[in-house]
Amino acid sequence: MTRAPEILRPKATLEEAARKILETRYGGFPVVDEEGRLLGLLQVEELLPRPENVPFSDVEALQLFGEWVDEGTLQEIYRRYQSTPVEAVMLKEIPRVHPEDPLGKALQVLLTTEVRHLPVVDQEDKVVGILTRSDILKLILRRQ
Predict the structure, then answer these.
(1) Per-residue pLDDT at 68 exceeds 60
(2) What are the CBS domain coordinates in residue numbering (predicted)?
């Protein structure tokens, strides 16, 4: 795991989060309170429009923050980034592991859920690390 990972605060704006993602080249960050307890997870996927089925139809369209968008609305998306806090779009019900958990448990979570950045927390739910699929791959290659 990566120890003492970079974090976001819940009141940070999506613009701040997007800039941090681009600067660090990380795909997501745990969101923590002032004591370092896990509140949620923000991944790049939460910042990008995604295809959704239009109700009562077979048509797919892009949706972001619960609203339908098209390529002409990039200005509006940026405006929303400037004013929307991370806590409004972060994943709140997320799996987590503890440092003493077997690696197989973390691998199963990373392979069977939408979580790409798995928080590692202590007994007080404070973030002590983060695990990614790349971390697992590094471990496999190191063992060869």
Answers:
(1) no
(2) 1-59, 90-144
More confident residue, 68 or 139: 139
Q: Which residue has the higher pLDDT, 47 or 101?
A: 101
Domain chopping of the chain, boundaries: 2-143
| CATH of the domain spanning 2-143 | 3.10.580.10
43, two tokens = 């991944």
Are 4 and 128 in contact, with CB atoms under 8 Å apart? Answer: yes
Cα separation, 59 vs 80, whole angstroms: 26
Beta bridge partners of residue 41, listed in sequence order:
30, 91
Other C-beta atoms closer than 10 Å to the C-beta of 124 total 10
Task: Give, as one character, the DSSP assignment of residue 102.
Answer: -
- Phi and psi, residue 26, nearest 5°: -90, 150
Is the pLDDT score of 27 beyond 80? yes
